[in-house]
Design a protein that fits this description.
Chain A: It comes from Streptomyces rishiriensis. Chain A: Pfam families: PBP_dimer_2, Transpeptidase. Chain A: This is Peptidoglycan glycosyltransferase. Chain A: Keywords: Signal. The complex is a heterodimer of chains A (about 475) and B (about 475). With about 475 residues, chain A is α+β, with helices and mostly antiparallel strands. Chain A has 17 helices and 18 strands. In chain A, helix 10 crosses helix 13. The radius of gyration of chain A is 28 Å and the shape is elongated. Helix content of chain B is about 65%, strand content about 0%. Chain B has helices spanning about 15-45, 50-70, 80-100, 105-125, 140-150, 175-200, 215-235, 240-255, 260-280, 280-290, 295-300, 305-315, 340-375, 375-400, 420-440; strands at about 165, 170, 200-205, 210. Chain B has a two-stranded antiparallel sheet. A two-stranded antiparallel ribbon of chain B has the order 3-4. In chain B, a hairpin with a 2-residue loop joins strand 1 (about 165) and strand 2. Classes of the chains: A alpha+beta (about 475), B mainly alpha (about 475).
Chain lengths: ~475, ~475
């Protein structure tokens, strides 16, 4: 019997070995696969187990976290939610994250390995570090000025610092409070349905994710291309421009809003926004050079990230001459985000340099220690410095005596360009009012801010919609906010 | 493996009661430490009941120790500390899960049941002077066991299995008690009939080894087995069915030494498994879950219990998340009972889980050792049977929740929430203490004197197959 008891004991030992080996398989060998299974809620629970890091504007958090005591413990809160929504996006327990909440998620949620003091530290402690902060480049007052300037009208404002590419304001209107999406309750679900069904699309980031026909503001690009190409050498020399201008190869005649454009020199044509002159100028410059300049300004670049993706602005590269003529005045297939037009204006202000825009100055640990900085951003020449100088002259004239006088700031040098963009089938839509500009304060060495404003106001009467009338005052308020801060 | 059937050496073994006491103190301290660790992790403070809990467990353990010291002074010194530690850890894990399930306070109830279990332990150790007394009550045991097994059929099914009875708010699982009674019966019956079972009967095939005993010998035991299996099929409880069948086969093998029994056992087991798996939807779904633990996830219905359990174990990794810091509560309603091991796996990690497995392994090993050291076949079979119950039960449930074998609803000995289970396991440990006391007692000590119970066949007079040693060896 002894032998058989021993056999039975050996059998039990075998069972024990099987259990141990299987535990090793589940807990070590295959644990990663189990951990990564999307149905495993542990990652989600850990993610919300601690307060999320904050997004800072001028050193002040515009976000917060609220302890709910639920399984997913912390919910996102927002200070001035609608004001910063196009920057922060939302962080919802159900619907995920967008914009900076999304792009900075690893840092904010504490998952970024850079947040831990030592490599492998978290593997040892099984903890995750406190969420880090994302410090934005935004200027609080500029952001507020833009938001208040739009006053709930549909539209967007983008402002950048020409010498660096820092985004100073990014506003979209109408907006929404991202806090309503934070939780995972029925209220969040209702808010989600309501916001998505809203015809005004409050969750659309019009400043960075929506493209508009830039209209006359695109004439900045056309003028720069013409000057760079030597098509125009003297701003004040008369051009050979008929008005109305028959689009090449068609019988369609292009007209102007005002008189005095026939054979107008570039300066006058720019200041009074003559469509005929610029349509012909684009054709004279040619598709290749127009394309090269537009792309140098950032058009057709599908990889712009600030750090969230920006909708690519487009300049069609296969056009006949009539289409090129229309494209040169910012119509036909030409489309631009407000941010892109702010970059165009910034390039003029900064001697022709285009700086890649960015919204995150640096990321920090909870205590404030820097994790990563924006670093040096690539820049490239969109036009010759001499061209940029002439363009500044033209833009200053627009504000001093042309269509953009509403943007003038006493004691500051301001350059601008208005635009009233036709759109819709047969241009039936209510036009968009544009204004792009830059400003240099009295004591500044170089321009401090470049702004693009677009107002798409369905409520206004068509005749009232002009860039100078509706958009320029908003741009001025933003520029003033930056210059005085 | 030419080990003699001879029992332990006659020399006086050290009793080692002092070591037992130190180990018990260590076990209680470890449990209290775990309790405090849970509180610190969850609330940042030592839980208010820590002192009371430690005192309660300590008093229980000391009383048990006193009983052993007075009535079983030669017993194995490891058995009781292991039981105390496992029970203590079980209370910690249940308390820890209580914190996540508001409105459900299972730990105090478990402490009450543990107290009952220790009381039964003390009663058995004190009242049962010699395990051989049990031999007389073999048929009483089997009748009681079958009655207990049959009882739940009269009650409504709970979670698909008909193994509980509910009286006045308490739910009892009679099958838990039945397994000890059946082990006693098998031991007594096989001890009395092992010669006939091993030796008599006709050969089948050409193999000398594969011999079937006569129907007269085999009849009663097969009848009882069929009855128990029949009852279990009615109760839809694959786990207990497997346990009883495995116990039966192991004890039959140990008693008769017939490898043929293993073959027949495995054959019957596979046939039974296939038949039950086909016919019984409850069991069939368990097998399906085992083969495809993530099927419900792919079907978009979320993870099932087994998947959640695997997630828990995986989350623990090597060293665990720490007590109180895991999320095994996601498993759902059986987290404190069937799946209690997942909490251990997640919060104590592979290291803690392995330690638990090794504790069980040690408990089983000490049981087998007692069996090896005893001289009477009944005691040997009883010790083997009791140790096998623990071994099989741990394997079936631990293998189930870690995805090694299909899941069967069973209670992890001492660890899981469940009164019947805790009480039964204390009874098993009490019986092991009793047999180990006999095994380690000096041969001519007074209690080893012949009782009026039928003595086992004197060693050395058995015919060849039942003797492990060479018959020519001088005895």
């Amino acid at each position: 019997m002894t032998r058989h008891i021993r056999h039975a004991a050996a059998f039990c030992a075998l069972l024990l070995v099987a259990l141990l080996a299987n535990a090793l398989r589940v807990q070590v060998v295959q644990s990663e696969a189990y951990d990564d299974n999307p149905a495993n809620r542990r990652e989600t629970i850990a993610r919300y187990a601690q307060p999320r890091g904050d997004i800072l504007v001028d050193g002040v958090p515009v976000t917060g976290s609220r302890d709910t005591g639920e399984q997913l413990r912390y919910e996102r809160t927002y200070r001035d939610g609608p004001l910063y929504a196009p920057v922060t996006g939302f962080a919802s327990q159900v619907y995920g994250t967008t914009f900076l909440e999304h792009a900075g998620d690893d840092v904010l949620s504490g998952a970024d390995p850079l947040l831990s003091p030592f490599p492998l530290w978290n593997d040892v402690t099984h903890g995750r570090p406190a969420g880090g902060n994302v410090v934005t480049t935004l200027n609080r007052r500029a952001q507020q000025a833009a938001y208040e300037g739009l006053g709930g009208r549909k539209g967007a404002v983008a402002a950048v610092e020409p010498s660096t590419g820092r985004v100073l304001a990014l506003v979209s209107s109408p907006s929404y409070d991202p806090a309503v999406l934070s939780g995972n309750d029925a209220a969040a679900e209702r808010a989600w349905v309501r916001l998505n069904g809203d015809p005004d699309k409050p969750m659309l980031n019009r400043a960075a994710r929506q493209t508009y026909p830039p209209g006359s503001t695109f004439k900045v690009v056309t003028a720069a291309a013409a000057l760079d190409a030597g098509v125009i050498t003297d701003l004040d020399a008369a051009t050979d421009s008929p008005a109305p201008y028959r689009l090449p190869g068609t019988t369609t005649g292009l007209t102007n809003e005002g008189p005095g454009c026939e054979d107008a020199p570039l300066r006058d044509a720019f200041v009074w926004s003559c469509n005929t002159v610029f349509a012909k100028l684009g054709v004279d410059t040619g598709l290749a050079r127009m394309t090269r300049t537009a792309q140098a300004f950032g058009f057709n670049d599908v990889n712009v990230r600030i750090p969230f993706a920006v909708a690519p602005s487009t300049f069609d590269t296969s056009l006949d001459r009539a289409q090129l003529a229309l494209s040169s005045i910012g119509q036909f297939n030409t489309r631009a985000t407000p941010l892109q037009m702010a970059m165009v204006s910034a390039a003029v202000a900064d001697g022709g340099q285009v700086r890649t825009p960015y919204l995150v100055e640096r990321t920090t640990r909870q205590g404030g220690a820097t994790v990563a900085t924006a670093g040096s951003r690539p820049s490239h020449q969109a036009m010759a410095p001499s061209t940029a100088r002439l363009m500044r002259e033209l833009m200053v004239d627009v504000v001093r005596e042309g269509t953009g006088t509403n943007a003038a700031i006493p004691g500051a040098v301001v350059g601008g360009k208005t635009g009233t963009a036709q759109h819709g089938l047969g241009n039936a839509g209510i036009p968009y009012a544009w204004f792009v500009s830059w400003a240099r304060g009295e004591r500044d060495m170089e321009p401090r801010v470049a702004v693009a404003v677009v107002v798409e106001d369905g409520s206004a009467r068509r005749g009232d919609i002009t860039g100078g009338g509706m958009a320029a005052p908003i741009a001025r308020a933003v520029m003033e906010a930056v210059l005085t801060s | 493996m030419a080990a003699a059937d001879a029992p332990a050496p006659a020399a006086l073994l050290p009793r080692r009661r002092g070591i037992e006491l130190s180990l018990i103190v260590l076990a209680v301290l470890l449990s209290v430490y775990g309790y405090c660790a849970v509180g610190l992790a969850k609330d940042g403070t030592v839980p208010p009941g820590a002192a009371g809990y430690g005192a309660g467990l300590g008093v229980l353990a000391l009383l048990a120790h006193l009983a052993v010291r007075l009535r079983a002074p030669c017993a194995d010194p490891l058995l009781l500390p292991i039981a105390v530690l496992l029970n203590g850890m079980g209370l910690v894990l249940i308390y820890r899960l209580d914190l996540e399930t508001p409105g459900d306070r299972a730990a105090p109830t478990q402490l009450v049941w543990s107290t009952l279990g220790v009381a039964l332990f003390i009663l058995v150790v004190a009242a049962l002077r010699d395990h051989r007394l049990l031999q007389r009550y073999a048929y009483v045991c089997v009748v009681a066991a079958l009655a207990l097994l049959a009882l739940p059929i009269l009650f409504p099914a709970v979670n698909g299995a008909r193994i509980w009875i509910r009286i006045a708010g308490f739910s009892i699982q009679p099958g838990e008690f039945a397994k000890v009674l059946l082990a006693v019966f098998f031991a007594a019956y096989l001890a009395a009939n092992r010669t006939a079972l091993a030796y008599a009967g006709r050969k089948i095939w050409r193999f000398e080894r594969l011999q079937l005993p006569t129907g007269r010998v085999l009849g009663p035991i097969v009848t009882i087995w069929l009855l128990s299996v029949g009852v279990l099929v009615l109760e839809r409880d694959l786990g207990t069915s497997l346990l009883f069948f495995g116990l039966f086969v192991v004890m039959l093998y140990v008693a008769t030494g017939r490898t043929g029994w293993i073959a027949v056992g495995l054959l019957l087991a596979s046939l039974g498994a296939v038949a039950v798996g086909r016919l019984e939807p409850h069991v069939h779904s368990r097998v399906e879950d085992w083969l495809h633990p993530f099927a419900t996830i792919e079907a978009g219905e979320g993870p099932n219990q087994l998947a959640q359990s695997l997630f828990s174990f995986a989350a623990g990794g090597m060293s665990g998340t720490g007590l109180g810091l895991g999320h095994s509560v996601l498993i759902g309603f059986a987290a404190k009972s069937d799946f209690i091991l997942a909490t251990a796996g997640e919060e104590l990690g592979l290291l803690g889980l392995s330690a638990l497995f090794l504790l069980y392994g040690l408990l089983v090993e000490r049981g087998y050792r007692a069996g090896l050291s005893l001289r009477d076949p009944f005691g040997r079979l009883l010790a083997t049977g009791l140790a096998s119950i623990v071994a099989l039960q741990v394997f079936v449930i631990a293998g189930g929740v870690t995805g090694l074998i299909p899941l069967t609803g069973m209670a992890m000995p001492f660890l899981a929430q469940g009164g019947s289970s805790v009480v039964t396991n204390w009874a098993i440990v009490a019986l092991l203490i009793r047999v180990s006391d006999s095994a380690r007692r000096p041969r001519h000590a007074p209690q080893d004197a012949p009782l009026d119970a039928p003595r086992p066949t004197p060693h050395g007079t058995l015919p060849d197959p039942l003797r492990d040693e060479d018959p020519r060896r001088p005895g």
